[in-house]
Amino acid sequence: xxxxxxxxxFGGWLRNVADEGMDASWDYTxxxxxRAEQIGYDLTLVAELNLNDIKGTDQPALDAxxxxxxxxxxxxxxxxxxxxxxxFHQPALFAKQAANIDRISGGRLALNVVSSWWAxxxxxxxxxxxxxxxRYGRTxxxxxxxxxxWREPKFSFEGRRYTLKDAICEPKPxxxxxxxxxxxxxxxxxxxxxxxxxxxxxxDTVEVVAEKIADMKARRAAAGRPPMIFGMAxxxxxxDSEEAARAEVARITTLDPEAPGFSNFDQWLSGTQLEREMxxxxxxxxxxxxxxxxxxxxxxxxxxxxxxxxxxxxxLLLQMSxxxxxxxxxxxxxxxx
Length: 337
Known about the structure:
With 337 residues, the chain is α/β, with parallel strands linked by helices. It has one domain: Alpha-Beta Barrel (TIM Barrel), CATH 3.20.20.30. Helices cover 44% and strands 16% of the residues. It is built from twelve helices and eleven strands. Strand 1, helix 1 and strand 2 form a beta-alpha-beta unit. Helix 3 packs across helix 5 and helix 6 crosses helix 7. The protein is globular, with a radius of gyration of 20 Å. The two termini are 12 Å apart.
């Protein structure tokens, strides 16, 4: 298993905890990532949103790609998996920018291609927002352009959305960056199986993740492409006892009526007690992070990780809070063991 973590570009991951002790700043990001590669982490995911969907849209959020360029210069080993949304980036100019960052890092750049989902954000910045299946059509064409520029000395392209004539991207990346992507629709899975290198999933149970991996392996084989990498998001809490870990879950899922977005969530909250508990967890922690249940003692968490590994999972993309301290604890008690 490889261990990755989300760079806290939003100042945290918890909607019910206002101050998580990890501000959205370059100083914190630099210190965290430099320490992470010293203690066993393999990769960091740098998310890309201009509006902060965790702490409130008026709160700070670091820019993904300028942060990635800075991290490339001050880290030595971490793979830098940086989110990119095709409707926010002209592909030919992006290919040049990303190749330069890859060179700065010595070949450590990877892409997390996100077919943009937040209409309000795109519209507030005056950008195109495609309807669902059209998003993957744009992403497919966008990837063709970027790949062609990284592969060919000169590249021409005539598509529905993009046109290039004898475009040049030099210097090229040290090696072609790995392309990660996620999605659960038919359009998303078809595009990923044919054009990407890795499939990343929201957190879920071992059984659900195993089914998704089997499905994508079959799609990949049918497309005649080499095997994929499989990753999953998860929120981790490691403590000396299961009781202490569950107490932390209770703390971070206790609703804060003053939190941004609470009024909309309160209208949505309904159903049986079990359904309500699930919804509370999904609201409180992003990316379905509590579903994998990486909560408990180090031994319990290692057993659960082994089950995911047996199901075919290659990479965990972890969120923790406060991140610096919790990543130290996880590294000592789980990764090192």
